Protein 1
Amino acid sequence: MSADNMNMNRRQVLQRAAYLMGGALSAPAVLGLLSGCAPKQEEALWEPVFFSKEQGAIVADVAEIIIPRTKTPGAKDVGVPGFIDTMLKDVYEQADRDRYLAGLKEFDDAARKAHGKPFVELSKAQQTEQVRKFNDDAIATELSYDPRPKDLKRPFILMTRELTLLGFFCSEVGATQVLQYVAVPGGFQACVPVAEAGNGRAWAQEAMGRL
Amino acid sequence: MNENTYDAIVVGTGISGGWAAKELTEKGLKTLVLDRGRNVRHVQDYPTATTDIWEFPYAGRATAEELRRQETAARTGYAITQASKHWFVDDTEFPYTEKQRFDWVRGYHVGGRSIMWGRQSYRWSPMDFEANAKDGIAVDWPIRYDDLAPWYDHVEQFIGVSGQNEGFAQLPDGKFLPPMEMNCVEKHFKQQVAEKLGRQLTIGRVAHLTAPLAHSPQRGTCQYRNMCIRGCPFGAYFSSQSSTLPAAEKTGNMTLRPNSIVYEIIYDEKKGRASGVRVLDAETRQTTDFFAKVIFLNASTFGSTYIMMNSISKRFPNGFGNDSGELGCNIMDHQLEIGARAMVDGFDDKYYTGRRPNGIYIPRYRNVGKDKRDYLRGFGYQGGASRGGWTGLMLDTKLGEELKERAAEPGPWYMGLGGFGEILPYHENRVTMDHSRKDKYGMPVLAFDAVLRQNELAMRKDMANDAAEMLEAAGYRNVRSYDREMGIGLGIHEMGTARMGRDPKTSVLNAHNQVHACKNVYVTDGSCMTSAACQNPSLTYMALTARACNHAVEELKRMNI
């Protein structure tokens, strides 16, 4: 497979599709298939719909601790807090929303109890320490289930972890700058050294089911 | 009457209906092709075919409201997403009754489930057509492998099937395009199960073009996107849209009429034959009669059965062609949701490029040759190896930069196997009309009453254990078998409710897929199946359809129908 093929962009793909159809479709008509929405805007523009402003601020800080800005953008940069807000509003059921908000309150209360301040006013080090503690405890609890409950109810911290991973790695930045993604591979190489598999990073995968 | 009169009528445009349309029009019959759903034009009407994951809302997941409206299709776990939800029926508009859990996964649109199908394409073997007679189960198939073999050739050469000829007795070779390649773990696994357990394994046989087809220059080759369920803008996999409907269109003999719900076959009591079909227009709600010399029912297994059960006449008071009382009985599917998965060490320096829309296949070995089990028939496995990614980090305690860096590295290799097991035909596993409930158009709905029985449950034990045994034999670790609850139907290989047979007293259709008691009606979708084997059945429906179309045209020439 040639490098050209690997890098064939979507416009070329669609033109090729039009060509393969024997010109049954004009290129503009095929390009009309490009109906997706634009990538999410910067975090500053985000107005929570489901969360209150205060709740949204906590969720945003937790998400950024899970996936921070490094050499590449982080959770806030790609709009993960807004994504979590939308997911809770439209994808989750009322019982999940209630559990999430109750857990969010407990999480903030824990900050107040330990430091006398709301979570968003803690230092980055204090915030990270609290997220780590909640994260590690909740993961240990989930891993201890045997058998795993059929209808597992994840606590606030793990719902936030799940939605942050999902929102980030399904974002354009997450899929193309942190992982790697080729819209139209054009061929299949069944077994190559990792370094020769594109840029050697993990391929972005579609994860529409539950984690 | 004249303007509504054709040589032939085909009801349905899915896997088998598209084939009936192609074969009948190519043989010169003016053919009316009806579908109950909206039209779907190739490429133009695949709204998500080129959408990248970040362009979907909700990272592609379905909303709570969508999952409520499409609850039964959502039981698959993959059908209802932002990428594919538009291909599946809204249960609130078209409900059905479940006396036992029953998973009826429907697509009401031109092309039907040929757009969303799994594309795995396997021949049945001589053993499969002989099984009922040999075991004394249900009724004997009225045909044998040799009757169908030339039609398998015909179908494979037209649709394009990628695969490897292996010479397996239980999985006949075919006319294949070049096989897709196994990755390094799959090759290792193949070698291990052959050496340690003497079991065979081949690359999946799939209806994808791995090389161009001279007769279908409009179709491109597979681009390894693995987004097939959305519709392929390259036409690289077989669907009615990419393959059979364009062929029918080209003849000038096809009249395609979407939004046409066939709810009854019109039976002419004087002539003793079917004269046409009654259609409810899904948009105008007007009813119209259409007439033809020959009628092909390809409305899907339960779709065709519904039309027959709903066609009551003096001659057929219990449903069209139902002298035997077998119409609606003998529901079969393939049992699945069972298998095993393991982690594989030793290949961490290896990876792949491209998303192969296919896996590996282990053909049936139980009750084959000298193997004898305490149940009848057997199962095959589909599976494959791949490397994990960020989803595997959900319960890893890593956070922050460390988590981000780990997610960017290819994860561990996993090898998985999922069983597809034969379900026997039981008279008691059946579908009936439920006149107490109505769909969007005021039509009565179907009621399903079917369960896995003792033979299937005994087979399930082997299906889970054997998968784990093979992964262990290959030296893999953390082998986990699974056995999840399923409703019949979840395999989306529903079959059997208007079965073929030799005797009109015990079957609905004859050896040519004609209704025993009304020879100008042919039924060639999954409802015609006399047993289920364990291979994916679509290729067999296509071959049976092509064979039946040839018969119908010959019979018309001979003035026999």
Note: The two ends of chain B are 20 Å apart (CA to CA).
Protein 2
Amino acid sequence: MKRLLFLLPVLAFVGLIAIFGVGLTKDPKELPSMLIDKPMPQFALPGIEAGGGFATAALRGQPALVNVFASWCAACPQEHPVLTRIAGEGYPVFGIAWKDQPADARDWLARLGNPYKAIASDLSGRVAIDLGVTGAPETFVTDKAGRVRYKIVGPISPEAWEGEIKPLMDRLRAEA
Amino acid sequence: MRRWRSGLIAALLAATPAAAVLPDEMLADPALETRARDISQQLRCVVCQNQSIDDSDAPLARDLRLLVREQLSAGKSDAATMDYVVARYGDFVLLKPPVEPATWPLWAGPFALAIGGGAMLALWLRRRGAAVPAEAPLSAAEAADLARLDGG
């Protein structure tokens, strides 16, 4: 009994180390989204060229990806080929050009190709705040009802698309 | 030497913490601006995380400062303005975490540790006190010896 009491602080210490150890493997930049299972916030934004843009209602009817990007964003070129592939596989990808001059976004897409079904220009960054965006790129997965079901912080890797997001999209497609 | 010292003091006095609020962001109404500053100091910049949006030069922090001012100008209360930001970014944006079931361990933890540790220390001290054997009373032979020595 006495020996057990002596071990107690040691066990508490080991427990604390375990908690800190798990904490080290997590990325502090990845905040939990407040939007999961909530409807996408309402917005209606112009495009990066005349006649473009889209509103929240456009996301209804099919599962979609909403990708927050910018020509100034360092990790976006890395993610771009994956988005091109996703669009090529027939999954709609919507883009939100975050605090990007329309001309800069146009140049960027002219250089790399445009995987987006529609692009909304959030020049003031106000819609990004409504979405709880902390950086670019960030991607939201929405279901047929236009609810947010998942959020990816940072560039989508080919592995994440294959292993996680694509299966989720297929599940959402099968939903009533 | 004296001049050097007064120069140093002047330099230290000048080194007040710099806020990131730019003049073009400030509200004309000083009372509203004070409230905006107060709220900004309690909101975490989600890009740099350990700075408040009042301290941070990040573009997103600026956007949030402007948003706070916009909400206040529209007549919203301080609490409603904070809630507006929390609804979008979660409790994490509050530099001082709220007291709610999920954060009870956080708030109660230090007190629980202090009370638990204190109790263990008290227990240990008492047990150590008990462990010292009480002095045995003198045996009959010892008492007789003592009486003989006392008597001389």
Note: Residues 99-133 of chain B form one domain.
Protein 3
Amino acid sequence: MTGRRGMRRSTVPFAGICMLLLIGCSPAERTGHAGTAEDPWIIGMSQCNLGEPWRVQMDADVRAAAAEHANLRVIFKDAQNESLTQRAQVEEFVEQGVDLIIISPKEAAPLTRPVAEAYQRGIPVIVLDRAVQGDQFTTFIGADNVKIGREAGRWIREQLGGSGRLVELKGLMTSVPGQDRNRGFLEGLQLEENTGLQIVFSGEMKWLEPDARREMESALATNAAIDVVYAHNDPGAHGAWLAARAAGRENEMMFVGIDALPHEGQQYVRQGILDATFLYPTGGAEAIEVALAILRGEEVPKHIVLGTRLFTQENIGRGGDPIP
Amino acid sequence: MRKPWREQLSRWWAMPVTRALLAFLLMLAIGCLFNADGAFFRWSVHRDTMRQVSVYGILACGMTVVIITAGIDLSVSSLLALAAVLFAWFTLPHGWPAILAIPLVFLAGTVLGSVSGALVAQLGIQPFIVTLAMMVFARGLAKVISGGQKVTNYVTDTDGSTRLIEHPPIYEMIDSRILGGNISIVTIVFLLCVLVTSTVLAHLRLGRHIYAVGGNKEGARLSGVPVKRTLIAAYALSGFFSAVAGICQAAQETHGDPETGMAYELDAIAMVVIGGTTLAGGKGSVVLTLIGVLTIGYLQKILSLNAAPEATRLMLTGAIIICAVWFQRGRKSARSKPK
């Protein structure tokens, strides 16, 4: 009896796996689609992690841009922050015979090889936001955090007219975006020429709103006057504003953030919480444009650096102003 | 011959609460030393410290109860996020009144907590595993409900159009201060949670059962303690407190973030342990936890006031947890040589 029960227990999952395999192994279709409405080009999009709103936005941008082209179909995959899952996704896209791969890789090293292999098999690969090593890909599209930080620093310097007391709420200084947004900011401020500008407090808020609020409370407690708060992301700037409001000092200073997600930073500007935010573009829409160019056989640059956009209360109504 | 006052002193010294208090006073002394140009001597700094630590403290209340049963609850941070999302979802896009939303959120937290408790009690699965599973599940549920985005006052209507709405007054109410602006409402909520936990543990029969189950499960069963019901009640209480913390978190952030509260369970455990409640179960109290919460809260505040870099903070926090627990453990040997 026990034997039969044991067999039954193991046969059920086994049959399940067989069925999944059967479904999964439907023969790899024809390669090279015509790019018409009847036989659309198929693009595989591998996103490293949909846990972050910014990456959700990237997928949304890709989806919206692709929806405007009837001759295009996009398959979305989420690697859930696992490099090896993402590697498997790239391999799956190759096996499926997609016409082009867009990947926003989690890390450079583990994904360099699968991307290179896909590229060598003649499938164009667009690498979005984070890079892979070497040159075995079609094109890289990404934003430049140093440049965005520099624009923020310059805007703040101009607003203050060369003198003022600043608070910097840093992301994570062990992360490259945190380092870049800090470095660019300092470059944009030009502290050597503008000796009146002074960073009176700088704290690490790990990109998190509650932590930003705590750091800002410390900044408020140790400084009687603050002119500008620069946070490395919009949730950080929002947390700082909440702290200042709780202290009744939110009108004393300006709040500047980065990222400008439509549902987040842009809304904060619209509500008058932030004075400015700088777009960290996802490149989703650009990726589709570049993908179409590649599929039509046009030449595209190897590296495309995206510009940013400045949103202030004065220009938010017209969708911000581009900074190329 | 020993003098009576020395005996008295050595008895005090042997009490966990004395040691916990001493660690806390030491922390305050460090704050006075590194006072960031006098900022540490202003009441507003202490008020903000207590506000900041309140959400962690509320979680630590439930954690204390579970740890006394010799269990652990890793799901508190995810239940907090779920509660925050639910609260924002009910009150912002749905526009339900707080009087309806709050009990529903409490209910959700309590139910999920008792599910963990039931799995521990009925199926005998280890608490670490049950609550680890609940932690993952609740975080997923929070993401499903919120659609992976923050639930804010920027709402999308059914026809796809978007609009901004005013936050209901409950948000402002929870994130405000009373007594001339000298104490935050969330701190009051935290203290109420401490009071509730203390009442349960010290004055109700349930409390006696909780200690009995944690001290010796088999012995408790033999002496007629309803072990299973007690365990379920303990985890349900923890789930309830997570829901309270989630509402406080959402009100303070002015939105429901499914990613909020990551790893708060570890802070809550650290606070309980620093207070002197041991992970072995059967011993401890929420008053100790209160002191532990304040000790860690002040440590974070002092590091923040002095703008210590993140790496230093992590190392110091780790070192201080070890020191504080070691300090607690030293009480046996200290009894033989009172100062």
Note: The domain at 145-281+313-323 of chain A is CATH 3.40.50.2300 (Rossmann fold).
Protein 4
Amino acid sequence: METYYKPEHLPRFGEIAEGNKELADAFFAYYGKVFQDGALSEREKALIALAVAHTVQCPYCIDAYTSACLEKGSDLEQMTEAVHVATAIRGGASLVHGVQMLDQVKKLVM
Amino acid sequence: MSLDTQEFIALELLSTGDGALIEVEGPRATTSMHHRRAPLTSPDEQFLILNAATVRSGPTTSGIFDRDLEASGWPVLQPAGLDIFQINLGKLCNMTCRHCHVDSGPDRIDENMDLGTIEACLRAIDVSGAHTVDLTGGAPELNPHFEYLVDECVQRGKHVMDRCNLTILTTRRYQHLPQWFAERNVEVICSLPHYRKLGTDAQRGKGTYDKSLRALRLLNEAGYGQGDPTRPLTLVTNPVGAYLAGNQASLEAEWKEALAKNHDVYFDRLLALNNMPMSRYLEWLMEKGMVEEYLEKLVQAFNPGTIAGLMCRNTLSVSWDGYLYDCDFNQQLDMKMDLPGAARPRVQDFSLGIWQQHVIRTERHCYGCTAGAGSGCGGAIT
């Protein structure tokens, strides 16, 4: 079946260098550095990536960072909490706009 | 994974192989393949399944370990120097973990090293020059001659490592061991796949985590895990699933913080090991239909930088019945050491000179030790 998302695209990510190697090299070097142990551990960074992956709803990232989270020592409970953080921020982002609605309502109704 | 639906062995009394019965309780994630008479207990069956998997990566893309070694500048794999003398005291264990490469369990009562073979090991240790004696199993403590062997090794000035499943230390008969180990400066190397409950119990059986923490506290009370080099407490983690071990140093920092913060429990170092695609772990991969995917993951992560430090180059492995192997994995796959000049691979006949000249035997499972940062009984290699 033809789909827009193809699992085999993930391991082929590097092929993006075909159109512009310099930019790809710079991106992958940066990407690699971002996920190294720093003030945050590799495990914490992978959890953040997992949450962001759910926010941007990228299936490649969700697969990749599910594996990465497990490899770096997170378990299902921790990963589920990370996804809930993304969900809470998404939901909260909608809900907090409700105050704008509220103000507008107050302006318009008696 | 529904642990509740697993069939548990209700064995509380274990035979020690010496005609005595001992009472031992232990968590069980599964039953041994031996107990179920599963065809996969045969090494030939395991090789058949592993070799049927298609391999597309690695230096030669052949999936033949020796060829990938050769392509990496290692035409023959031979020992460096003998540092570690590893003895597998038997397959008997109070636990039955999901991933066990030994297929250990409470039903493995027939395979236990006898005193004659232990004496032969001690003679071999004397001529081996190895600085460390590494005791494993099964639960090595269940061997009736365990304490005698440890004492003999300590008297010889050897560094002794006990590969401990932790839960055994919470059983009545073995509660004295933390203090007993401390008096002899034995390094305790403990299996704990995760610093949280979920993964630990899934892999090692319900209740393992709580018992393991209890055992770790006993070890802490005996002076272990406090940074004292004479009482080192080492934890071993291996993935609770079909992925590679993480960055050992990074995991160690996280584990130390989490265990201290959540449980006031301390340890000295963490070893991160890959799971070997064999025995009960292979069985689990087959159930999941992931044999090929996992093997491909290992081969894809083939790291030539690990070859020099592979444990088969500085360790030898003795089985409960006195045979010699290049590692505990080869031992469980019945790949006896291939010694030159038709020398018998028996501990009774051990010669350091012959060992140094021999060629190490490999099969596809060996990709588990060369993947990523490398893996082995000593943890990451690079």
Note: The first helix of chain A runs from residue 21 to 34.
